């Protein structure tokens, strides 16, 4: 985003209310619900769910862009580190799972994570992956607090 001397960024949308008296650790991503809607299939059956996820995987498979490939590797490694890929699973299993969403009307991203957030969300956005699914996938790939 190019702002100097900023510790992080708040994202607000829709009908969110920002209660200033709530404590937030500004060193980590903060999300009100995190990945707690893991079994939700909302939005997955629309064109902005599984169809978009398949298009993302096809793009990743066909790209030579080093920044996209680096971001995707960081995404997959984050899923592994945070326990979302078991045994022989890969990022493909996670993307085709047809489950998981995160209500995304309010969250905080520290400056230390904004570059990765911007890159992974650009991939999701360009393929029209629904916001609540995209944020869920991002949250699974990084340490976050609720």
Shape: globular
User: How is the main sheet built?
Assistant: 4 strands, mixed
Number of domains: 1
Oligomer: single chain
Low-confidence stretches: none
- In which range does the helix fraction lie? 40-55%
Helix-strand topology string? EEHHHEHHE
Cα-based radius of gyration, to the nearest Å: 15 Å
* Range of strand content: 5-15%
If helices are DSSP runs of H or I spanning 4 or more residues, what is the number of helices? 5
Report the end-to-end length measured between terminal Cα atoms: 24 Å
Structure description:
The chain has 146 residues and is of the alpha+beta class. The chain has one domain. It has helices at residues 50-62, 66-81, 91-95, 111-126, 131-140, and strands at 8-12, 29-31, 106-110, 144-145. It has a four-stranded mixed β-sheet with strand order 1-3-2-4. The chain is globular, with a radius of gyration of 15 Å. The protein starts with 7 loop residues before the first strand and ends with a strand. The mean pLDDT is 88.
Compact description:
By secondary structure, the protein is an alpha+beta fold. It is built from five helices and four strands, in the order ββαααβααβ.
List its traits.
146 residues; alpha+beta; 4-stranded mixed β-sheet; STL-like
Topology at a glance:
Layout lengths: L7 E5 L16 E3 L18 H13 L3 H16 L9 H5 L10 E5 H16 L4 H10 L3 E2 L1
Parallel strand pairs: 2-4
Antiparallel strand pairs: 1-3, 2-3
Helix pairs in contact: 2-4, 4-5
């Amino acid at each position: 985003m190019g702002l100097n001397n900023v510790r992080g960024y708040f994202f607000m949308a829709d009908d969110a209310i920002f209660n200033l008296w709530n404590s937030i650790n500004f060193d980590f991503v903060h999300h009100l619900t995190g990945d707690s809607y893991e079994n939700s299939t909302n939005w997955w059956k629309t064109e902005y769910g599984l169809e978009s996820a398949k298009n993302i995987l096809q793009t990743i498979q066909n790209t030579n862009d080093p920044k996209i490939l680096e971001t995707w590797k960081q995404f997959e490694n984050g899923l592994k580190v945070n326990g979302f890929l078991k045994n022989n699973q890969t990022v493909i299993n996670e993307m085709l799972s047809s489950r998981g969403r995160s209500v995304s009307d309010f969250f905080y991203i520290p400056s230390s994570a904004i570059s990765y957030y911007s890159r992974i969300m650009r991939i999701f956005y360009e393929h029209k992956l629904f916001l609540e699914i995209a944020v869920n996938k991002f949250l699974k790939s990084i340490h976050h607090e609720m």
